[in-house]
């Protein structure tokens, strides 16, 4: 019979709690917390290692978690439902959490299909954008320091693990990365002078810039972008949700490059 | 000096509170609550009338609200900040709320560009989809009874007033509406047997079906759709956020019909 930890002074629990709470702690420790079978499986499928697994007794009785626990080479810790609920944002407990090392960011690509997020702050938007970007064939994502932390529980949940398979560079200096990029830098702007997305040649190496929810693309990045595009919209609407706009733009790039 | 209502037993306040809370009350009263200048202005711009305006003293000092209050032919009620905060979900008080009659649903279109939402439950998704649908030229939206209530505060906020300009039929019998539709009924499915979105002819009258977050399009509606399309995705990703998928699909319909 395995011991069930119910004390909030347990060091592994304390560590998990800290990294679930703030970006500062995640950065300091270099660790993130994955919640649920889907994310943990995506992590293992990507060939990555897990530091510590935390699960509940009820969780371990689910066959998919039992099966995963047998595969994982890591410290495992059975914790009480009460402790588990303080670590999870999900309304119904998944029963499984994993502490993992945040991957080292890749070297910046200078060609191919890159996405630049310029101050996208809403965690749900950032997560869903990563998921769509991966689906559309984006090879690398650069995020400015103002963007939501991609290793936060909310972004991990909305991204459904896209973070795990899609190389991302956080706190990126978008201007200097764009300067080094050998292909076309394109920014999506709410500007009548920009060219219609569907009448713009988006073939070949491309770095696509999407701006923040309220402000759009920053003036510095707008200046960097040789090509400015506008998603056509019916009169009477001011703008689209940034996630939806990203989906439309990235899929148009994909369509033109097939 | 205008009286400031601070009692929660004020009948107008009580009505506003009830309709802010549940769909049942909104349906019973036939009323919805608009929060903030943007939504109220969109409502007036559409030529619609307001039943009652509730504002705070601080709100009335903002020039755009002061200006709006002068235009509005309706009962106005100055309420305390404390009461206002119980009526608004927004973190910082907008200072302006309007009670309005929910519009009578239009007669169902049998041609043109229609969107069918089959069980989309997340309020943020439904709101953002309405906004994108309007931008893409959708002329009418049909929502099954399982969808989020489009007159709820969350959907109104995410839709940024698209509800006001885009005719919607809630609690719709999608199967019978689709049966009466004279054009192509197309459903987006996660099915390898479906045809590639970009290799499907989407020109002409079209009723496009998007399914729920977890389950996708219902079997009944999948059976109704003569054309089934799949949004192409990079291997390794299971699905897209339903809002992003809607944006991609509706804009592809728009692109082909330009």
UniProtKB/TrEMBL annotation, chains A, B:
Database matches in InterPro entries: Alpha/beta_knot_MTases, MRM3-like_sub_bind, Ribosomal_eL30-like_sf, rRNA_Methyltransferase, SpoU_MeTrfase, SpoU_subst-bd, tRNA_m1G_MTases_N
Tree of life domain: Bacteria
Limits of the RNA 2-O ribose methyltransferase substrate binding domain: 33-106
Keyword Translocase carried by entry: no
Cellular component terms (Gene Ontology): cytoplasm
GO molecular function, one term: RNA binding
Keyword vocabulary terms for this entry: Methyltransferase, Transferase
GO biological process: methylation; RNA processing
SUPFAM superfamilies reported for this sequence: alpha/beta knot, L30e-like
Family according to the record: Belongs to the class IV-like SAM-binding methyltransferase superfamily. RNA methyltransferase TrmH family.
Classification via PANTHER family: RRNA METHYLTRANSFERASE 3, RRNA METHYLTRANSFERASE 3, MITOCHONDRIAL
The name this protein goes by in its record: RNA methyltransferase
Provenance organism: Chitinibacter bivalviorum
């Amino acid at each position: 019979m395995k011991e069930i930890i119910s004390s909030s002074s347990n060091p592994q629990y304390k560590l998990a709690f800290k990294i679930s709470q703030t970006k500062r702690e995640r950065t300091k420790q270099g660790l993130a917390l994955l919640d649920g079978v889907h994310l943990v499986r995506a992590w293992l499928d990507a060939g990555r290692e897990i530091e510590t697994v935390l699960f509940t007794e009820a969780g371990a009785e689910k066959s998919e978690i039992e099966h995963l626990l047998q595969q994982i080479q890591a410290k495992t810790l059975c914790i009480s439902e009460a402790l588990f609920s303080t670590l999870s944002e999900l309304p119904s407990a998944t029963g499984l959490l994993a502490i993992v090392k945040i991957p080292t960011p890749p070297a910046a690509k200078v060609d191919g299909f890159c996405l630049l997020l310029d101050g996208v702050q809403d965690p749900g938007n950032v997560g869903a954008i990563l998921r769509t970007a991966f689906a559309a064939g984006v090879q690398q994502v650069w995020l400015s320091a103002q963007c939501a932390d991609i290793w936060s529980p909310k972004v991990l949940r909305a991204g459904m693990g896209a973070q795990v398979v899609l190389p991302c560079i956080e706190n990126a200096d978008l201007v200097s990365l764009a300067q080094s990029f050998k292909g076309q830098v394109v920014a999506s702007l709410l500007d009548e002078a920009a060219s219609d997305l569907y009448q713009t040649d988006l073939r070949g190496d491309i770095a696509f810039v999407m701006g923040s929810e309220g402000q759009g693309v920053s003036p510095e990045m707008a200046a960097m972008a040789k090509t400015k595009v506008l998603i056509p919209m019916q009169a009477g609407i001011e703008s689209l949700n940034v996630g939806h706009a990203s989906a439309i733009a990235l899929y148009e790039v994909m369509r033109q490059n097939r």
